[in-house]
Amino acid sequence: KVETPNDGKNKKAFMFREDEEESKVRDDLKPKLVYRGTDKEIDPNDIGLVKNAEDKRVMDEGYKNFAYNSLVSKRIGFHREINDTRHQHCLDKTFPENLPTASVIICFYNEDFYTLLRSVFSVIRRSPPDLIKEIILVNDHSDDKELIEKVENELETNLELSIVRFFTPEERLGLIRSRIFGARKALGDVLVFLDSHIEANVEWLQPLLTRIKESRTNVVTPVIDVINPDNFGYKPSPLVRGGFNWGMNFKWEGLTKRVERFDEPIPSPAMAGGLFAMDREYFTELGEYDPGLDIWGGENIEISFRIWMCGGRLDILPCSRVGHVFRKRRPYTSTDERGVDTQDRNALRVARVWLGDHIKHFYSAITGVETLSPGDLTERFELKEKLKCKDFSWYLNYVYPELEIPGMEERKGAKEKVEKLNKYERWDQRSRNYTRSFQIKYAPSSLCLEPIDGVGSKGSFVKLSSCLRSKKQSWYQTDR
Ligand code: UD2
Ligand code: MN
Protein backbone atom coordinates (compact mmCIF):
# COMPACT_ATOMS: atom_id res chain seq x y z
CA LYS A 1 0.00 0.00 0.00
CA VAL A 2 1.27 3.39 -0.92
CA GLU A 3 0.64 6.12 1.60
CA THR A 4 -0.65 9.49 0.60
CA PRO A 5 1.81 12.23 1.35
CA ASN A 6 0.76 14.22 4.39
CA ASP A 7 1.20 17.87 5.02
CA GLY A 8 4.49 17.32 6.83
CA LYS A 9 3.17 18.01 10.32
CA ASN A 10 3.59 14.45 11.53
CA LYS A 11 6.89 13.86 9.88
CA LYS A 12 9.27 11.78 11.94
CA ALA A 13 13.01 12.38 11.90
CA PHE A 14 14.43 9.83 9.55
CA MET A 15 16.78 8.27 12.07
CA PHE A 16 14.06 7.14 14.47
CA ARG A 17 12.08 4.02 14.05
CA GLU A 18 8.41 3.94 15.02
CA ASP A 19 8.61 1.67 18.03
CA GLU A 20 8.72 1.80 21.79
CA GLU A 21 12.49 2.28 21.67
CA GLU A 22 12.00 5.67 20.15
CA SER A 23 11.42 7.75 23.21
CA LYS A 24 14.28 6.06 25.03
CA VAL A 25 16.66 6.83 22.18
CA ARG A 26 15.53 10.44 22.20
CA ASP A 27 16.15 10.66 25.92
CA ASP A 28 19.58 9.16 25.58
CA LEU A 29 20.54 11.81 23.05
CA LYS A 30 19.40 14.76 25.15
CA PRO A 31 22.18 16.61 26.95
CA LYS A 32 22.21 15.72 30.61
CA LEU A 33 23.23 17.51 33.75
CA VAL A 34 25.21 15.16 35.94
CA TYR A 35 26.76 15.51 39.35
CA ARG A 36 30.41 16.47 39.01
CA GLY A 37 32.67 13.49 38.43
CA THR A 38 29.80 11.02 38.08
CA ASP A 39 27.25 9.74 35.55
CA LYS A 40 24.44 10.36 38.00
CA GLU A 41 21.85 12.71 36.60
CA ILE A 42 21.03 15.75 38.68
CA ASP A 43 17.68 15.62 40.40
CA PRO A 44 16.11 19.09 40.06
CA ASN A 45 14.38 18.53 43.41
CA ASP A 46 17.64 17.67 45.16
CA ILE A 47 17.57 19.72 48.33
CA GLY A 48 21.32 20.12 48.21
CA LEU A 49 21.52 21.26 44.60
CA VAL A 50 23.98 24.13 44.13
CA LYS A 51 22.36 26.46 41.60
CA ASN A 52 24.61 29.49 41.73
CA ALA A 53 27.68 31.05 43.29
CA GLU A 54 25.78 32.18 46.39
CA ASP A 55 24.58 28.60 47.03
CA LYS A 56 28.14 27.42 46.72
CA ARG A 57 29.32 30.04 49.17
CA VAL A 58 26.68 29.08 51.74
CA MET A 59 27.60 25.43 51.40
CA ASP A 60 31.37 25.92 51.59
CA GLU A 61 31.17 28.31 54.54
CA GLY A 62 28.88 25.88 56.31
CA TYR A 63 31.25 22.97 55.95
CA LYS A 64 34.13 25.17 57.08
CA ASN A 65 32.46 26.71 60.11
CA PHE A 66 29.96 24.08 61.20
CA ALA A 67 31.10 20.83 59.54
CA TYR A 68 27.73 20.26 57.91
CA ASN A 69 25.81 21.36 54.83
CA SER A 70 24.24 24.74 55.70
CA LEU A 71 22.74 25.05 52.23
CA VAL A 72 20.50 22.07 52.93
CA SER A 73 19.79 23.31 56.43
CA LYS A 74 18.76 26.71 55.10
CA ARG A 75 16.44 25.16 52.54
CA ILE A 76 14.76 23.03 55.18
CA GLY A 77 14.18 26.21 57.17
CA PHE A 78 12.68 26.55 60.63
CA HIS A 79 10.44 23.47 60.59
CA ARG A 80 10.04 20.12 58.95
CA GLU A 81 8.32 16.83 59.52
CA ILE A 82 10.55 13.94 60.58
CA ASN A 83 9.80 10.23 60.96
CA ASP A 84 8.33 9.18 64.24
CA THR A 85 11.08 6.67 65.02
CA ARG A 86 9.60 5.19 68.18
CA HIS A 87 8.82 1.51 68.47
CA GLN A 88 5.11 0.76 68.48
CA HIS A 89 5.30 -0.21 72.15
CA CYS A 90 5.68 3.50 72.78
CA LEU A 91 2.75 4.68 70.76
CA ASP A 92 -0.28 4.44 72.98
CA LYS A 93 1.38 5.58 76.20
CA THR A 94 -0.38 7.94 78.51
CA PHE A 95 1.50 10.17 80.89
CA PRO A 96 0.66 11.24 84.42
CA GLU A 97 -1.00 14.57 85.11
CA ASN A 98 1.07 17.27 86.77
CA LEU A 99 4.40 16.42 85.27
CA PRO A 100 7.23 18.67 86.44
CA THR A 101 8.05 21.59 84.13
CA ALA A 102 11.18 21.72 82.04
CA SER A 103 13.81 24.36 81.46
CA VAL A 104 15.43 23.45 78.18
CA ILE A 105 19.03 24.64 78.04
CA ILE A 106 20.75 24.99 74.70
CA CYS A 107 24.31 26.34 74.64
CA PHE A 108 25.86 27.16 71.30
CA TYR A 109 29.10 28.29 69.83
CA ASN A 110 29.11 29.16 66.10
CA GLU A 111 25.97 27.42 64.94
CA ASP A 112 24.21 27.84 61.60
CA PHE A 113 21.17 30.12 61.96
CA TYR A 114 18.60 27.66 60.59
CA THR A 115 20.04 24.65 62.35
CA LEU A 116 19.95 26.53 65.65
CA LEU A 117 16.44 27.84 65.23
CA ARG A 118 15.12 24.53 63.95
CA SER A 119 16.43 23.00 67.18
CA VAL A 120 14.50 25.57 69.17
CA PHE A 121 11.32 25.29 67.09
CA SER A 122 11.33 21.50 67.25
CA VAL A 123 11.29 21.76 71.04
CA ILE A 124 8.48 24.32 71.00
CA ARG A 125 6.30 22.49 68.49
CA ARG A 126 6.80 18.97 69.77
CA SER A 127 6.35 19.64 73.49
CA PRO A 128 3.11 20.32 75.38
CA PRO A 129 3.26 24.09 76.04
CA ASP A 130 2.42 23.76 79.73
CA LEU A 131 5.46 21.55 80.30
CA ILE A 132 7.99 24.01 78.92
CA LYS A 133 8.84 26.62 81.50
CA GLU A 134 11.40 28.26 79.24
CA ILE A 135 14.09 27.67 76.70
CA ILE A 136 17.41 29.08 77.81
CA LEU A 137 19.64 29.87 74.88
CA VAL A 138 23.26 30.53 75.82
CA ASN A 139 25.46 32.12 73.17
CA ASP A 140 28.97 31.09 74.15
CA HIS A 141 30.56 34.04 72.35
CA SER A 142 30.04 32.87 68.80
CA ASP A 143 32.45 34.64 66.44
CA ASP A 144 29.86 35.75 63.89
CA LYS A 145 28.20 38.93 65.17
CA GLU A 146 25.73 39.02 62.27
CA LEU A 147 24.43 35.62 63.30
CA ILE A 148 23.75 36.88 66.80
CA GLU A 149 21.91 39.93 65.46
CA LYS A 150 19.77 37.68 63.28
CA VAL A 151 18.98 35.42 66.22
CA GLU A 152 18.15 38.34 68.51
CA ASN A 153 15.97 39.91 65.85
CA GLU A 154 14.05 36.67 65.30
CA LEU A 155 13.56 36.25 69.04
CA GLU A 156 12.20 39.77 69.35
CA THR A 157 9.83 39.64 66.42
CA ASN A 158 8.54 36.07 66.39
CA LEU A 159 5.83 35.55 68.99
CA GLU A 160 6.23 31.81 68.97
CA LEU A 161 9.72 32.33 70.36
CA SER A 162 8.66 34.37 73.38
CA ILE A 163 9.37 31.34 75.57
CA VAL A 164 13.09 31.72 74.80
CA ARG A 165 15.44 33.55 77.19
CA PHE A 166 18.66 34.57 75.48
CA PHE A 167 21.98 35.06 77.29
CA THR A 168 25.52 35.86 76.34
CA PRO A 169 27.90 35.35 79.28
CA GLU A 170 30.73 37.84 79.96
CA GLU A 171 33.30 35.64 78.28
CA ARG A 172 33.63 32.41 76.30
CA LEU A 173 32.98 29.65 78.80
CA GLY A 174 33.29 26.44 76.83
CA LEU A 175 30.34 24.08 76.72
CA ILE A 176 30.64 22.84 80.29
CA ARG A 177 30.70 26.15 82.11
CA SER A 178 28.07 27.47 79.66
CA ARG A 179 25.73 24.73 80.83
CA ILE A 180 26.40 25.59 84.48
CA PHE A 181 25.67 29.22 83.58
CA GLY A 182 22.39 28.24 81.89
CA ALA A 183 21.35 25.90 84.70
CA ARG A 184 21.77 28.66 87.27
CA LYS A 185 19.34 30.87 85.34
CA ALA A 186 16.73 28.13 85.11
CA LEU A 187 13.37 28.27 86.89
CA GLY A 188 11.73 25.02 85.81
CA ASP A 189 11.62 21.83 87.90
CA VAL A 190 13.73 19.82 85.51
CA LEU A 191 16.76 20.79 83.44
CA VAL A 192 16.82 19.42 79.93
CA PHE A 193 20.15 19.94 78.19
CA LEU A 194 20.31 19.78 74.41
CA ASP A 195 22.96 20.47 71.78
CA SER A 196 22.26 23.28 69.34
CA HIS A 197 21.94 21.08 66.22
CA ILE A 198 19.11 18.76 67.14
CA GLU A 199 15.48 18.04 66.27
CA ALA A 200 13.18 16.83 68.99
CA ASN A 201 10.82 14.08 67.87
CA VAL A 202 7.16 13.39 68.72
CA GLU A 203 6.39 13.20 72.46
CA TRP A 204 10.07 13.33 73.28
CA LEU A 205 9.64 15.24 76.54
CA GLN A 206 6.90 13.40 78.42
CA PRO A 207 8.79 10.12 78.97
CA LEU A 208 11.76 12.04 80.39
CA LEU A 209 9.65 14.04 82.82
CA THR A 210 7.60 11.01 83.82
CA ARG A 211 10.68 9.07 84.84
CA ILE A 212 12.02 12.00 86.87
CA LYS A 213 8.66 12.46 88.54
CA GLU A 214 8.97 8.82 89.71
CA SER A 215 12.22 9.66 91.45
CA ARG A 216 14.18 12.88 91.55
CA THR A 217 17.45 10.97 91.42
CA ASN A 218 16.59 9.40 88.07
CA VAL A 219 18.66 10.96 85.33
CA VAL A 220 17.52 10.18 81.81
CA THR A 221 18.48 10.59 78.20
CA PRO A 222 16.51 10.20 74.98
CA VAL A 223 17.69 7.85 72.25
CA ILE A 224 19.86 10.03 70.03
CA ASP A 225 18.73 9.57 66.44
CA VAL A 226 21.11 10.41 63.63
CA ILE A 227 20.83 13.49 61.44
CA ASN A 228 23.19 13.19 58.48
CA PRO A 229 25.54 16.22 58.23
CA ASP A 230 25.52 16.22 54.40
CA ASN A 231 21.83 15.94 53.59
CA PHE A 232 20.12 16.26 56.98
CA GLY A 233 18.40 12.90 56.50
CA TYR A 234 16.87 11.69 59.78
CA LYS A 235 17.48 8.05 60.77
CA PRO A 236 16.52 6.09 63.87
CA SER A 237 19.28 4.84 66.13
CA PRO A 238 19.30 1.31 67.47
CA LEU A 239 18.89 0.68 71.18
CA VAL A 240 22.32 0.79 72.78
CA ARG A 241 23.93 1.78 76.08
CA GLY A 242 26.68 4.26 76.75
CA GLY A 243 30.11 3.16 77.91
CA PHE A 244 33.73 4.24 77.57
CA ASN A 245 37.28 2.98 77.29
CA TRP A 246 40.24 3.53 79.60
CA GLY A 247 41.16 6.67 77.69
CA MET A 248 37.85 8.05 79.05
CA ASN A 249 36.44 8.22 75.53
CA PHE A 250 32.73 7.64 75.28
CA LYS A 251 31.51 4.73 73.15
CA TRP A 252 28.27 2.91 72.46
CA GLU A 253 27.85 -0.60 73.86
CA GLY A 254 25.54 -3.50 73.06
CA LEU A 255 22.79 -4.39 75.51
CA THR A 256 23.22 -7.08 78.16
CA LYS A 257 19.74 -8.51 77.84
CA ARG A 258 17.50 -9.37 74.97
CA VAL A 259 14.97 -6.60 74.53
CA GLU A 260 11.45 -7.86 75.03
CA ARG A 261 9.74 -4.57 75.67
CA PHE A 262 10.94 -1.67 73.59
CA ASP A 263 9.58 0.96 75.93
CA GLU A 264 11.57 0.14 79.05
CA PRO A 265 14.43 2.22 80.46
CA ILE A 266 17.88 0.94 79.54
CA PRO A 267 20.41 1.39 82.35
CA SER A 268 23.48 3.06 80.90
CA PRO A 269 26.94 3.18 82.51
CA ALA A 270 27.60 6.53 80.81
CA MET A 271 25.81 9.20 78.80
CA ALA A 272 26.90 10.64 75.46
CA GLY A 273 26.64 14.03 77.11
CA GLY A 274 24.66 16.39 74.95
CA LEU A 275 21.08 15.40 75.61
CA PHE A 276 19.76 14.57 79.05
CA ALA A 277 17.25 15.56 81.69
CA MET A 278 17.77 15.88 85.41
CA ASP A 279 15.87 17.36 88.34
CA ARG A 280 17.11 20.94 88.74
CA GLU A 281 17.74 20.83 92.47
CA TYR A 282 19.31 17.41 92.20
CA PHE A 283 21.72 18.78 89.58
CA THR A 284 22.85 21.43 92.07
CA GLU A 285 22.98 19.03 94.99
CA LEU A 286 25.10 16.60 93.02
CA GLY A 287 27.63 19.34 92.23
CA GLU A 288 26.51 20.61 88.79
CA TYR A 289 29.54 20.01 86.58
CA ASP A 290 33.21 20.33 87.41
CA PRO A 291 33.78 24.00 86.49
CA GLY A 292 37.47 23.23 86.01
CA LEU A 293 36.68 21.41 82.77
CA ASP A 294 37.43 23.52 79.70
CA ILE A 295 35.78 23.84 76.27
CA TRP A 296 34.89 20.23 75.33
CA GLY A 297 35.05 16.69 76.65
CA GLY A 298 35.03 14.54 79.77
CA GLU A 299 32.06 16.16 81.52
CA ASN A 300 29.72 13.43 80.28
CA ILE A 301 31.83 10.69 81.86
CA GLU A 302 32.32 12.72 85.03
CA ILE A 303 28.62 13.36 85.58
CA SER A 304 27.80 9.73 84.76
CA PHE A 305 30.25 8.56 87.45
CA ARG A 306 28.80 11.00 89.96
CA ILE A 307 25.23 10.00 89.19
CA TRP A 308 25.88 6.27 89.65
CA MET A 309 28.42 6.39 92.47
CA CYS A 310 26.65 9.02 94.54
CA GLY A 311 23.17 7.55 94.75
CA GLY A 312 21.39 8.24 91.49
CA ARG A 313 20.85 6.25 88.33
CA LEU A 314 21.12 6.86 84.61
CA ASP A 315 18.84 5.37 81.97
CA ILE A 316 18.20 5.78 78.27
CA LEU A 317 14.48 6.00 77.48
CA PRO A 318 13.67 4.36 74.13
CA CYS A 319 10.33 6.17 73.82
CA SER A 320 11.99 9.57 73.83
CA ARG A 321 13.83 10.38 70.63
CA VAL A 322 15.83 13.41 69.59
CA GLY A 323 17.89 13.68 66.42
CA HIS A 324 21.42 15.12 66.55
CA VAL A 325 23.72 16.14 63.70
CA PHE A 326 26.70 13.83 64.09
CA ARG A 327 29.59 15.57 62.40
CA LYS A 328 32.73 14.03 61.03
CA ARG A 329 34.97 16.59 62.72
CA ARG A 330 34.66 19.24 65.41
CA PRO A 331 34.63 22.61 63.62
CA TYR A 332 36.42 24.47 66.43
CA THR A 333 39.65 23.90 68.29
CA SER A 334 39.51 22.50 71.77
CA THR A 335 43.05 23.51 72.67
CA ASP A 336 43.31 26.07 75.43
CA GLU A 337 45.51 29.18 75.52
CA ARG A 338 48.37 27.09 76.98
CA GLY A 339 48.23 24.87 73.91
CA VAL A 340 46.91 21.95 75.92
CA ASP A 341 44.24 19.71 74.45
CA THR A 342 41.28 20.27 76.77
CA GLN A 343 39.90 16.83 76.08
CA ASP A 344 43.00 15.16 77.57
CA ARG A 345 43.32 17.56 80.46
CA ASN A 346 39.62 17.23 81.25
CA ALA A 347 39.93 13.46 81.16
CA LEU A 348 42.83 13.69 83.58
CA ARG A 349 40.74 15.70 86.07
CA VAL A 350 37.95 13.17 85.85
CA ALA A 351 40.30 10.20 86.19
CA ARG A 352 42.16 11.68 89.16
CA VAL A 353 38.99 12.22 91.15
CA TRP A 354 37.05 9.09 90.24
CA LEU A 355 39.22 6.18 89.15
CA GLY A 356 41.06 5.43 92.41
CA ASP A 357 43.78 2.81 91.89
CA HIS A 358 42.43 2.07 88.46
CA ILE A 359 43.99 5.29 87.22
CA LYS A 360 47.01 3.26 86.11
CA HIS A 361 44.95 1.92 83.21
CA PHE A 362 44.09 5.48 82.20
CA TYR A 363 47.77 6.43 82.27
CA SER A 364 48.67 3.54 80.03
CA ALA A 365 45.82 4.36 77.64
CA ILE A 366 46.93 7.96 76.98
CA THR A 367 50.70 8.23 76.87
CA GLY A 368 52.11 11.28 78.59
CA VAL A 369 48.80 12.37 80.11
CA GLU A 370 50.17 12.20 83.66
CA THR A 371 52.58 15.02 82.82
CA LEU A 372 49.69 17.47 82.25
CA SER A 373 48.58 19.63 85.14
CA PRO A 374 44.96 18.94 86.07
CA GLY A 375 44.66 22.09 88.22
CA ASP A 376 43.16 22.22 91.70
CA LEU A 377 40.96 19.24 92.48
CA THR A 378 40.29 19.89 96.18
CA GLU A 379 36.67 20.90 95.73
CA ARG A 380 35.83 17.88 93.64
CA PHE A 381 37.37 15.54 96.20
CA GLU A 382 35.46 17.31 98.96
CA LEU A 383 32.24 16.93 97.02
CA LYS A 384 32.84 13.21 96.60
CA GLU A 385 33.41 12.97 100.34
CA LYS A 386 30.33 15.06 101.20
CA LEU A 387 28.03 13.04 98.96
CA LYS A 388 29.44 9.79 100.42
CA CYS A 389 30.01 8.41 96.96
CA LYS A 390 30.92 4.79 96.39
CA ASP A 391 34.25 3.98 94.79
CA PHE A 392 35.19 2.88 91.31
CA SER A 393 35.39 -0.82 92.18
CA TRP A 394 31.74 -0.72 93.20
CA TYR A 395 30.88 0.98 89.91
CA LEU A 396 32.82 -1.63 87.96
CA ASN A 397 31.05 -4.47 89.71
CA TYR A 398 27.50 -3.21 89.70
CA VAL A 399 27.19 -0.77 86.83
CA TYR A 400 29.78 -1.64 84.22
CA PRO A 401 31.02 -5.23 84.58
CA GLU A 402 31.63 -5.29 80.81
CA LEU A 403 34.54 -2.86 81.00
CA GLU A 404 37.59 -5.05 80.55
CA ILE A 405 40.35 -4.47 83.05
CA PRO A 406 43.78 -5.10 81.58
CA GLY A 407 45.28 -8.15 83.27
CA MET A 408 42.04 -9.31 84.86
CA GLU A 409 40.95 -12.16 82.66
CA GLU A 410 38.04 -13.30 84.82
CA ARG A 411 36.10 -10.14 83.90
CA LYS A 412 36.13 -11.09 80.22
CA GLY A 413 33.04 -13.25 80.82
CA ALA A 414 30.64 -10.33 81.12
CA LYS A 415 31.86 -8.77 77.91
CA GLU A 416 31.69 -12.05 76.04
CA LYS A 417 28.11 -12.50 77.18
CA VAL A 418 27.16 -9.21 75.55
CA GLU A 419 29.03 -10.10 72.39
CA LYS A 420 27.43 -13.53 72.16
CA LEU A 421 23.98 -12.08 72.62
CA ASN A 422 24.65 -9.60 69.85
CA LYS A 423 25.92 -12.35 67.57
CA TYR A 424 22.86 -14.51 68.07
CA GLU A 425 20.47 -11.70 67.44
CA ARG A 426 21.73 -8.19 67.10
CA TRP A 427 19.66 -5.76 69.14
CA ASP A 428 19.56 -3.28 66.30
CA GLN A 429 18.17 -5.80 63.87
CA ARG A 430 15.35 -6.95 66.08
CA SER A 431 12.74 -4.62 64.84
CA ARG A 432 9.75 -6.90 65.24
CA ASN A 433 7.64 -7.66 68.21
CA TYR A 434 7.62 -11.42 68.93
CA THR A 435 4.09 -12.40 69.86
CA ARG A 436 4.27 -16.22 70.06
CA SER A 437 6.79 -19.02 69.84
CA PHE A 438 6.15 -22.66 68.97
CA GLN A 439 7.45 -25.82 67.31
CA ILE A 440 6.17 -27.06 63.97
CA LYS A 441 5.48 -30.78 64.19
CA TYR A 442 4.56 -33.25 61.46
CA ALA A 443 1.67 -34.72 63.43
CA PRO A 444 1.74 -38.42 62.40
CA SER A 445 5.37 -38.62 63.51
CA SER A 446 7.60 -37.20 66.18
CA LEU A 447 9.45 -35.08 63.64
CA CYS A 448 9.79 -31.30 63.79
CA LEU A 449 10.83 -28.63 61.33
CA GLU A 450 14.26 -27.05 61.56
CA PRO A 451 16.51 -25.02 59.22
CA ILE A 452 19.28 -27.06 57.58
CA ASP A 453 21.78 -24.22 57.94
CA GLY A 454 21.14 -23.72 61.64
CA VAL A 455 19.69 -21.05 63.91
CA GLY A 456 19.53 -17.52 62.56
CA SER A 457 20.50 -18.46 58.99
CA LYS A 458 18.69 -16.60 56.26
CA GLY A 459 17.11 -18.32 53.27
CA SER A 460 17.92 -21.80 54.52
CA PHE A 461 16.03 -24.92 53.41
CA VAL A 462 14.22 -26.78 56.18
CA LYS A 463 14.19 -30.43 57.13
CA LEU A 464 12.34 -32.70 59.52
CA SER A 465 14.24 -34.06 62.44
CA SER A 466 13.43 -35.62 65.82
CA CYS A 467 11.53 -33.14 67.96
CA LEU A 468 13.77 -31.60 70.59
CA ARG A 469 13.45 -28.66 72.91
CA SER A 470 16.02 -26.65 71.06
CA LYS A 471 16.51 -23.17 69.61
CA LYS A 472 16.81 -24.75 66.18
CA GLN A 473 13.19 -25.84 66.35
CA SER A 474 11.77 -22.65 67.85
CA TRP A 475 9.61 -20.72 65.43
CA TYR A 476 8.30 -17.26 66.15
CA GLN A 477 5.23 -15.36 65.22
CA THR A 478 5.77 -11.63 64.88
CA ASP A 479 3.29 -8.82 64.72
CA ARG A 480 4.22 -7.79 61.21
C1 UD2 B 1 29.37 15.20 72.56
C2 UD2 B 1 28.06 15.68 73.13
C3 UD2 B 1 28.24 17.08 73.62
C4 UD2 B 1 29.27 17.09 74.75
C5 UD2 B 1 30.54 16.48 74.21
C6 UD2 B 1 31.61 16.26 75.25
C7 UD2 B 1 26.11 14.50 72.22
C8 UD2 B 1 25.17 14.40 71.10
N1 UD2 B 1 27.01 15.54 72.15
O1 UD2 B 1 29.98 15.95 71.52
O2 UD2 B 1 27.05 17.62 74.12
O3 UD2 B 1 28.80 16.41 75.86
O4 UD2 B 1 30.32 15.22 73.63
O5 UD2 B 1 32.01 17.43 75.85
O6 UD2 B 1 26.05 13.73 73.14
N2 UD2 B 1 29.51 24.53 72.58
C9 UD2 B 1 29.55 25.67 73.38
N3 UD2 B 1 30.77 26.21 73.68
C10 UD2 B 1 31.94 25.69 73.22
C11 UD2 B 1 31.89 24.53 72.44
C12 UD2 B 1 30.66 23.96 72.15
O7 UD2 B 1 28.51 26.15 73.81
O8 UD2 B 1 32.99 26.23 73.53
C13 UD2 B 1 28.22 23.91 72.28
C14 UD2 B 1 28.03 23.49 70.83
O9 UD2 B 1 27.55 24.55 70.03
C15 UD2 B 1 27.05 22.34 70.95
C16 UD2 B 1 27.40 21.73 72.30
O10 UD2 B 1 28.14 22.70 73.00
O11 UD2 B 1 25.71 22.77 70.97
C17 UD2 B 1 28.19 20.44 72.17
O12 UD2 B 1 29.30 20.58 71.31
P1 UD2 B 1 29.49 19.65 70.03
O13 UD2 B 1 28.24 19.50 69.31
O14 UD2 B 1 30.66 20.16 69.28
O15 UD2 B 1 29.86 18.28 70.74
P2 UD2 B 1 29.59 16.76 70.19
O16 UD2 B 1 28.19 16.62 69.82
O17 UD2 B 1 30.63 16.47 69.21
MN1 MN C 1 26.78 18.01 69.03
**Number of helices, where a helix is a run of at least 4 consecutive DSSP H or I residues:** 14
Radius of gyration: 28 Å
Terminal CA distance: 62 Å
Strand runs, count: 17
**Proportion of residues in helical segments:** 25-40%
The coarse silhouette is globular
- Sheet/helix structural class: alpha/beta
Strand percentage lies at 15-25%
Spans of at least 5 consecutive residues whose pLDDT stays below 50 are: none
Provide structural commentary.
By secondary structure, the protein is an alpha/beta fold. It contains 14 helices and 17 strands. A hairpin with a 6-residue loop joins β6 and β7. It is globular, with a radius of gyration of 28 Å. The chain binds uridine-diphosphate-N-acetylgalactosamine (UD2) and manganese (II) ion (MN). The site of manganese (II) ion has 4 residues, from loops. Manganese (II) ion is lined by residues 195, 197, 274, 324.
